[in-house]
Amino acid sequence: MTFIWPVMLAALILVPLAILLYLWLSQRRRSLAANLGSMGLADGVTESKLGKRRHIPPLIFLVGLTLLLFAMARPAAEVSLPRQEGTVILAFDVSGSMAADDLKPTRMEAAKAAAREFIQVQPASLQVGVVAFSESGFAVQPPTNDHEAIISSIERLSPQRSTSLSAGIIASLNAIAVGFGQPPLVDTDLSESPVPTATPLPDGILTPAVILLLTDGENTAPPDPFPAAQIAADRGIRIYTIGIGSAAGTTLEINGFSVHTQLDEAVLKEISQLTGGEYFYPENEADLVEIYKGITPQLVVKSEQMEVTPVLAGASIFILLVGGLFSLMWFNRLP
Fold it and tell me: How many angstroms separate the Cα of 330 from the Cα of each of 53, 55, 192, 307?
């Protein structure tokens, strides 16, 4: 336990002084009663008639006073409270295939609309970051609880070139690391640098961070996404993959060329299974909104310093009232 105003603890010196004052008054009262009794002026007024209960109200008052003086120092205790907390990275595929309209109005716009609804209902304890990836990946919004900034960064997204799922995963991992005050984990191009080895977390231990990978799953640019997914799994970071598009696919006109694009569910399922996440397939924008609602932050128990002055002050006042009630009931006076 710590104290915001520790100097006020000096007021506790009043407690032993109050005890000495009570003892002195009791001795004085006994002497006065004895003198009056010897003169026949206080018939029947003796300590034995009042009994030991005459000390109970003052004792209760003393406890209440001690608590009140203790509360003046504004004590703070470490309290473990369950709360929804963590980091969610929204990793958007911004490749050219996300302009397809097999998910109305387009894959990209449906994903953005659902993300906006998801962000608006999240608690302040949840940090949300936004990553965009095509041939490479980068964080367009570091993890924050500023909903306006997050939505603004999503609105700026637009379809670009080809798709590297690995780049999206690595950029998301780096955004999580930076959000936790750590340096970026790895380079986004695993094909040019060795895959870093991480000490896997024990089974069942999860980092309070998840990645929502919104993509059509077509990995059209190197490197392979599975080594990157394994890095996430070793760090206890789950990847929830959301398949945008349809298995039948559609044909797009990109730079004068006709390109057929279709959802690759097999890759997305394997990524989610590898990391302990889950794969979702929305058939329309409403389904996508429901998927977002089903992905909730992890419930964690976190120790926080909490000032307990109101609790102690309230308890002291209650105790003082109880002492006063007993004194009025038994002696028709306050101690």
Answer: 9, 11, 88, 37
119-124 long-range contacts, CB within 8 A, separation 24+: 119/147, 119/150, 119/151, 119/154, 120/147, 120/151, 121/293, 122/88, 122/147, 122/297, 123/84, 123/297
Put residue 119 in one of left, alpha, beta given phi > 0 → left and psi -120 to 50 → alpha: alpha
Closest to 217 in 3D by CA, of 252, 242, 234 = 242
List, in sequence order, the alpha helices (H) in the chain: 14-38, 47-50, 56-71, 107-120, 147-155, 165-179, 225-234, 265-275, 285-294, 309-331
Angstrom distance (rounded) from CA 147 to CA 257: 38
For the chain, how long is the longest CA-to-CA vector? 122
**69-81 pLDDT, tens digit each:** 888 888 888 776 6
Return d(Cα 202, Cα 235) in angstroms, integer: 10
Q: Please, are residues 298 and 206 in contact by the beta-carbon 8 Å criterion?
A: yes
304: β partners:
79
For 301-331, how does the pLDDT look when each residue is reduced to its tens digit (9 = 90+)? 566 677 888 888 888 888 888 888 887 777 7
Which domains does the chain possess? 2-78+304-331 (no CATH), 86-297 (3.40.50.410)
Quote the pTM value: 0.61
